[in-house]
UniProtKB/TrEMBL annotation:
Naturally occurring in which organism (per UniProt): Thioalkalivibrio versutus
Pfam families reported in the protein's UniProt record: ELFV_dehydrog, ELFV_dehydrog_N
Binding site for NAD(+): T214, N245
Signal peptide: none
Keywords: NAD, Nucleotide-binding, Oxidoreductase
Keyword presence, Magnesium: no
UniProt name for this protein: Glutamate dehydrogenase
GO molecular function: glutamate dehydrogenase (NADP+) activity; nucleotide binding
Domain Glutamate/phenylalanine/leucine/valine/L-tryptophan dehydrogenase C-terminal as annotated: residue spans: 207-447
Biological classification of the source: Bacteria, Pseudomonadati, Pseudomonadota, Gammaproteobacteria, Chromatiales
Assembly with partners or alone: Homohexamer.
Amino acid sequence: MNGSLDEKLEPIYQEVLHRNAGETEFHQSVHGVLETLGPVLVKYPEFAELKIIQRICEPERQIIFRVPWQDDKGELHINRAFRVQFNSALGPYKGGMRFHPSVYLGIIKFLGFSQVFKNALTGLPIGGGKGGSDFDPKGRSDSEIMRFCQSLMTEMYRHIGEYTDVPAGDIGVGQREVGYLFGQYKRLTNRFEAGVFTGKGLDWGGSRARTEATGYGAIFFTQEMLKARNDSLEGKRVIISGAGNVAIHATEKAQQLGARVIACSDSRGVILDEDGLDLDLVRQIKERERGPISAYAERKKGAKYSENGSIWEIPCDVALPCATQNELTGKDAKVLVENGCIAVAEGANMPVTPEGIQTFREAGIAFGPGKAANAGGVATSALEMQQNASRDSWTFEYTEARLQEIMANIHRTCHETAEEYGAPGNYTVGANIAGFVKVARAMEAMGHI
Ligand code: NAP
């Protein structure tokens, strides 16, 4: 890891390493938070006495279970699934489900840990959790996906509920999967408990603007960072990694605000289109055909595809990593800085390595950490829960306006907290401290639990 830890925090971190051996992504996310908390313990010495940090690093509950399912040929497969209920000091556990072959406990715990602070930052009453499975949905038929989701929910249903734990989507889990998961929950419990899952379809309890929210929110946050520097997105060259839910909607909002998005990617390669991406074509390939992004260059004149290429070598003003963790390294960050990039916001969770973050900080680039920049998704999930609780359905415009206001508030909170703790302009410090203090105060009030 990069930065050094305060002497009170180093032993806590060593204990986390010892108790969670081999979970490197979890170690990285814990270190990223602890390295900013030194000044908090000076201001609130009671948090150390109450062992709030040790408690916050230990999930309240971790559930690991077997998911057997049959493919279309009748062959049986066994996957492993997880639900980590990290912290419920502010509300029910809340966080998505990820289906990807790389999933193991360390990834779910890093995501769940970050989610605790992110959810606190939204100002909404939600705790933090995360789940997923090492199931690979690529190349699977709809029936196979349905059988897998039903088998998973046959165990998970007993651990979740609108007042307990409210899952949503993440990598590999979109509206199709949420439909199968929610359907099986409804069948098993005999309850139409809409608030148990977010990211639902509009006809069955979903919220308008939820699908768009993470990507739109990342752009609203970027806009706020630029505004704080008397700048805007208008006319900027933007590159956005990924071609999934977050990347597609970040592209859409950036284009609406007058930016030129010239590149995107998927797990196989990178597309460069100097004329500006044709988003309808990206959606056709990735959302409807569920194919590789290379198909874009075959259909769009002038576009270039590079297999296994690095998107970060493309000169740009603004870079938005929106695919996966640790996709932008220290080396990539140096190239971006040399090419004149002025702002980076994490649409994905922990996409920039610690070395990358340090490079951006040293270069004075505006850097929006995921806990703040991609909080729009979970914030709108909480708005979906509000609509479910009141059996209401808001318009797109109203919901988007709420999202925009929430992102501006998160930006303001991070900005002001960073200044208060002597690190002006450092949104990582601002996001970690503001999120942590809110959760810590609630934990203090609730006693030794
Ligand atoms: P998604 O719809 O499944 O899209 C993921 C995209 O990233 C795809 O284009 C995928 O390529 C690419 N990708 C996945 N794993 C990769 C890898 N190991 N290497 C390179 N590319 C990879 O997922 P999403 O919902 O957009 O989520 C993207 C990121 O945003 C994740 O970090 C997620 O945790 C975070 N996030 C999502 C939400 C939300 O509301 N969805 C909210 C907050 C944060 P292929 O198409 O080739 O698979």
